[in-house]
Amino acid sequence: MNDLQQLSGPVVLGLFILFFGASLIISLRISRKRENADGYMTGGGRIGFGISAASMTATWIWAASMYASATSGFQYGLSGPIHYGLWGALMILLIYPFGRRIRQVAPRAHTIAEVMFARHGRSSQLMLAGSNVLGSVISLTSNLIAGGALIDMLSPFTFTQGVIAIGAGVLLYTLWAGFRASVLTDFMQVIFMLGAVVIIIPVVFFAAGGPSLFETGAHRLTPQQGDFFSSDAFFNQGAPYIAAVLAYAIGNQTIAQRLFAVREDLIKKTFVTATVGYGATIIGIGMLGVIALYAGIEPVGGDVNNLIPQMAATYLSPALLALFFIMIIGSLSSTADADLTALASIVMTDIYGQNIAGKGRANPRTMVLIGRITMVVAITAGVFFAGSQLNILDLLVFVGALWGALVFPVIASFYWNRVTNSAFSIAVVLALAAFLPVRFSWIDLSGGLGIVSDVLATIGIGVVLGLMAFGFFGKRVAFVVGIGSTLASAPFAIGFLHQYPVLSGSLVAYAVSTVVCVALTLASKQKPFDFDLIKVRTGDFDPETDPIPVAGSAAGPGPATAGSGSAAAPTPDLERNFS
């Protein structure tokens, strides 16, 4: 550690003041004495293309994803960051087809859990809300861990001091204006990040040896690390992440919040742009791990979370090191503030708005106060859990797999009018019960149970690929892809997949939730659901004042009553259902 360059204490403090001071000024300029509850959660649902695309890009180019991509490059070689970046980009792209349907049936909602309450009832709502609380706290913790590692490596301050300082800085500017502060500061943060990446990656590459590094360092790689089509990378990183990305796209409130915030006619444009920006940037950052692998660099203290700041401290000049510092602070802040606003929206809408006060009786001013208290509690919990310094890559894959239990029931609930609350709830509970013992190897899968696990995981392959195909091409193609991929993979997967518990656990969760949800739905005699009811049951909590527009948002007043707002004209694909 003593051989690595560091920024001096005054320089670090100056960069903190510059970055968080600018963010606070932006937040204070848009804050209002009489805060609008709906604006605090979703910006009124009228944010324009530029701000939305920048926010989506910045939110998912987060410090944890940067660190995880570099870790993947260090562990698996060149194919690691490509698996991580491409499938992460696919996650963002998958929001577009399903997002259009979600906004069509719930144009004025604030959370997916709120829509599940309108569609099914309290149990499905609380399952989705609870999983998002867990996911957002883990995400927030991951970002604070990344920030603490950065401060510890590049400054005279300690890991704990870094975690506390970053948590306080993010809370300071997010607390006042909520979601609007998050999306507006994202625009500034994404400029810092993209600009820094374009400069820093080439500098590190050439400082480490340039193209010749791939020859001089090749002997340090295992055969799997040197193979671009590494099966090790695919089964341990790529395949689990392919399964996880669909879950992130459907289950994550930070994504849903931006889906409900962007103007409905700009959904496709926004998320396609963010897809390209995320994929290119994260694959580029992951190359730092590949460079470290070829250069024979070992992470300080054996902690892969130290890898990115260690590479920067080894190869960058002081000026570029300061630029790198701002890049990482910006990336972690852009997602940490999204996690805070996501948690605030869940507590404001799903806990207070619908389960304590009740829709129509919720006090908007009380909602905003509850949202701010939630942020303070969340950042405190994040700082506390960050002390564990868990592996960021493991945290991300675990959360994605956990959400896999929810994917099919949630998607089916937006298209299939026969899905019931009991089918949804029982399917999720049983899927989680199957996921946990497989994921953590609590049971011996070497015998008959291993075959059962493999059969379910094989069905899970068909479910994942079928749902992806359904989003873009409709029901018929989805059935062909789903059944075809299950049959094609069965001879290879059965007897083999249980050797990879991370992948198997995720696929088993998909399979169990799908089979149980379909079976219970087909057995039900309940009357088909009228999707128009969702528009009536969801809507603004604060209709007396117009949501305060965000720069780049559409002009014109917002809807005046709950459940109002115009949905985009339905397309043939979106009108199809599973029946």
Automatic annotation (TrEMBL):
This is Na+/proline symporter. It is a multi-pass membrane protein. The chain crosses the membrane at residues 6-26, 47-70, 82-99, 126-151, 157-179, 191-214, 234-251, 271-295, 307-329, 369-389, 395-416, 423-442, 448-470, 477-497, 503-523. Its main location: membrane. One of its GO terms (cellular component) is plasma membrane. The keyword Transmembrane applies. Residues 551-572 have a biased composition (Low complexity).
